Amino acid sequence: MTIHLSILLFWPLLLSLLGAFAPRAVAPLFALVGALIPLAYAVLMIVDYEPAARGLQYLTDDAWIDELGIRYTLGVDGLNLWLVALTALAFAASALWIALRPPVRAKLYALHFGIAETAVLGAFLAQDLALFVLFFDLMLVPFYFLLGQWGGPERVQAALKMVVYTLVGSLLMLAGAVAVAVLSPTAELTFSLAELRANLTGESTQKLLFAAFALAFLIKMPAFPVHGWMPDAYRNMPLPVLAVFSGVVSKVAAYGFLKIALPLFPAAVEDWQLILLLIGLCSILYGSIQAFTQTNTRLILGYSSVAQLGFIVLGIFALDESANGAQGALLQSINHGLVVVPAFLIVALLAARSGGSEDIRDMGGIAFRAPLLASLFLIVTLATLAMPGSANFVSEFLILLGVFQSKLVIALVASTGVVLASVYALRLYIRSMHNRTGVAVTSFELSLRDAVVLVPLVLCIVAFALYPQRALDAGEPAVRSAVAPVTQPAEQAAAAEVTP
Amino acid sequence: VSLQTYAWIVLFAPLAGSVFIGLTFRLLPGRGHGLVGTLAIAVSFVAAILAFLELESRGEEERQVVSVAWDYAVTTGIDAQMSILIDPLSVLMMLVVSGVSMLIHLYSVSYMGGDRGYARFFAYLNFFVFSMLLLVLAGNFLVLIVGWAFVGAASYFLISFWYRRTTATAAGIKAFVINVLGDVGLVLGTYFIFKGTGTLDFLGTFEAAPEAFGENESGLVAGCVLLLVGAFAKSAQVPLHTWLPDAMEGPTPVSALIHAATMVTAGVYLIARMHPLFELAPTAADVGAIIGCLTLLIAASIGLVVTDLKRVIAYSTMSQIGYMVMAVSSAAYAAGMFHLMTHAFFKALLFMAAGSVIAAMAGVQDLDRMSGLRKAMPFTFVCMLIGGLTLSGVPPFSGFFSKDEIISLMFAREDWHIVLGVLGYVGSLLTAIYTFRMIFRAFWGEPSPEARELEGGHLFHAEQPTNPATGEVEDTDVGFPGPEHHIAERELSMKIAMGSLAVLAVVGGIVQVPRLNESLHKFLEPTFAGSHLYEELEPSGTLIWVGLVIGALIAAGGIFIAYTLWVRKPAAPRALQERFAFLHRLFGRKWYFDEAIDLLVTRPWGWSGRFAANTFERVVVNGALVGGASGAVRAASAAVRGGQSGYLRYYAALLLVGITGLGAYFLISA
Hints:
- The complex is a heterodimer.
- By secondary structure, chain A is mainly α.
- In chain A, 73% of the residues lie in helices and 3% in strands.
- Chain A has 20 helices and two strands.
- The longest helix of chain A has 30 residues, at 324-353.
- The longest helix of chain B is centred in the first third of the chain and has 32 residues, at 166-197.
- In chain B, 56% of the residues are buried.
- The chains are: A mainly alpha, B mainly alpha.
């Protein structure tokens, strides 16, 4: 089957542009269609994808800016297949949510939403470094507006903080990308990732450039200690936007490590491995203790994301021989996205039942007349704390196994993060749903418009829990080839000589 | 129909029941959900019996069967399939779990009758049984861990079943977190073992282990000790036991389920299942034996002084599990499993009787308030008495044989295991005393007002329902705990359940009587075929007979002491308390485990959390670390705010136009 990635990529943008010329009432519908078609397309792609085949599938490769050697190259492999699907799912769910509760200035909102989806998909699909950087930076723009214009009371400050913070990383990465292309010993100037990978820069250069990319990715995630922008941004972003932001934007960073940082700078990784493992470890511990101390539901989820992204960093830099850690990290990226999207939407429902407050001290007893909501939230909670039986557990199991094989002590310390996760996740659930009824709480069941978004998302979690195998199958060769330059440099060099 | 099919039916019938009840929770009338739930477990039980018969009809070598349903998480180097292992050990567990659970479900049909969470209760209950069956049927480490964690989650659901009670939710999260700690131990233990053997499959692991690890090699010992952490957390062995007494916050049938069939026995099963590894790592096995022995003594000592009816039984569970852990860690596998089985019968019975008593007392669980219930509740009394006699190890009840088997094998093992055997006898004495202390205090003496009312034919109801743990007035609008109470004397299903268990408790010992009938030992042989200790460990004839006599004398002596103290000389206990004030305080405060854990674990985490939230985030993350950047942010935001945020939009639009222009330029020039 032929799948045109350009359609997948630009459809959301196109539809939201069209929506900008449509009557105000139907603008969210355009955004919805703009998000649903890519979802259908992504599902088709998963069905059609050949896990056994190596290399990129559905390749689109056109010249773009010849003078600079920038090409418009899109492709899918095991690394981004499921992340693209996750992106499409998260945006579709969120678009449906928005369509059922149109915000003020809906046209503009929908426009930014469409740009956001195209930007994220672009970052995942790009096979050209310049294209990746372009989409990576483009992501910032729509979220900046969505936060700055539709956000909570401190939106202006939060938006500026987020922009300044992530801009630092973006600029570093931009400079790094240019430097890679220029310094790489290719015949002509090129940004093609495949070419750059076959022609690595010198060892000392790699070390510097790795740092630039790593910092950009860590800020985007965010990881400890460069998460300073996160609390303000999370407190103020509109919830459906926050759902996709936390669900997929952070995954671009994790993906960036596997797609760019490891293959392009293998010589640097040995020096940086321990530092990044420690950053991952600190993110887990710091995120967890914050998550069980905060009382704002958004921040509990935000810091829990810091902790879970810490696990992802840990997995990527486990660098064990069979690449179990990296495979777990990739799976965890998908799992975390699947879990956090419904979690933030549930926060909106909780707030609607506790007199508008998003603080767990004002909640309690919400489960009483809302058994369906309680059940859905319970499943999300258990998946969040990576209970065995969830796909999240499979990924954590692989991550910790990978780290265990390469750095035993770090794995032992990191496993306390698993216990802490059960504390913060259950604390959130119990304080909101159980215990005595809060003063301003009125418990009522999900409405149809809530259920229509949440139930499918939770069913996805359950289905993935029962059968994570397919995602693992697709990811395995791609992940192995991503970490191979680091773990098996000799073989890699031999392979590079054979392939033209 | 093949053995594998039966096993899958055993496993999935409860899950199907749980899902069905969950989906129809508003559709079935009356006690429909209870009956559906019971039926699901009955299907499971019947399939377990058929699996047992099928297994028996096979040759010795064909009694270990692995069945794979689908690839779960198979990837480079990892063979994680959804597989189950059917062998005599798992079939025995299947029978005990599904059989006892079925009776507990039957009991609950009436007992939970008035509760508003009726359907939810049975959905959880079925899920609990499913989880336990998954645990015992697991064919590899990953599935074991899944079942292990599901059991923990199910116990959390049920312990905090009455979720409006803050005591119940606190107990729930405590149980869950300690269980997750156990899960982590299990996962890390798996890693250590996997690192050597390169497989997650049980049979593959057992085959590869002797090659991969030398005797007592550090990696294997570490792995086995970590497995023990998992076992201790689930089986409530010190110091990971503190969740168990708190778990009494759940409805009484849940206590019966946790203590008899579905949860605390998991650790015993785990050690028995992993016996090839523990025999290669005797140091780890010794740790298990010692901790088991310590637990049995500590728990029994606490059982002597607690005044909450359910908690007395809870501590007795801890203590009895201590016996089992001690047994299976000392290669007395069949004896440990035997005691696990008889314990399941009499402990379920004791909890059911206690539930009936609590219902008659309108929710009150305090022994101080109970007295003289013998005449008012004759059926409950007889059941409690049978349970108590079995627990105390009075011949010819089943507990007598199973406990004695463990102790005599300790002596047969010789060396320092003899000390464990002697301490086992000390434990027996304490067991008989605390058991009959409970029975004499609740059923003898002047009838309490509640007992009198019941003798007059009327079931006592509290004017205002309160939380027995705190005295807090309940949220009455909620409807759970339900406004009605149900006692065994008035409910047929409760009577059937308790009657069946009473019979089993009395006659269950016949499956394994030394020298006369050793069918349990023989049945389990294929599982333990590789263990040289299984066959060699055999007490001599004198040891057996002396042991049986001593066991009987100790049980009788304990009961006599209890009779003297709490019936004949009611003033004596107070005098003893004053005389041994230190011990009384130590036991009464449960050896200060809760306080120690709070001080050493809970509080430091709380402090670090507050430090992170209030100080570190502000000073380091937002202050020093990004001083320059955040200064710039502040300046910029001040400028924007000065311009009344109208500028923001302007600035933002400019940014967008700029980027679009840039993109357009490149597009055109391309």
